[in-house]
Amino acid sequence: MEEERIGKIVKYFARIGVAAIILEKELQVGDRIHIKGHTTDFEQKVDSMQIENKSVEKAGPGDAVGIKINDRVRPNDVVYKVQETG
């Protein structure tokens, strides 16, 4: 499996389990992401994504997106897109 850096965490909303991510590359609903940081390291599928409280199917460089995530993250954790190889 290959990974490509696509953005970083800017904020985490613990009460609702949502991470705000500034994207450097395109991300789509259904993509698999890997979030890695000092104490963070997990993978998950992107089930939904929002920009300014509106659901979107995909977003691109410079967009700030909110994604519901399965585990705690911290600002400056790096977000990678996992590419299925083969």
UniProtKB/TrEMBL annotation:
- Supply the alphabetized keyword list: Elongation factor, Protein biosynthesis
Q: Name one GO molecular function term.
A: translation elongation factor activity
| Domain of life of the native organism | Bacteria
What protein name is recorded for this chain?
Translation elongation factor-like protein
Q: Which organism is it from?
A: Aerophobetes bacterium
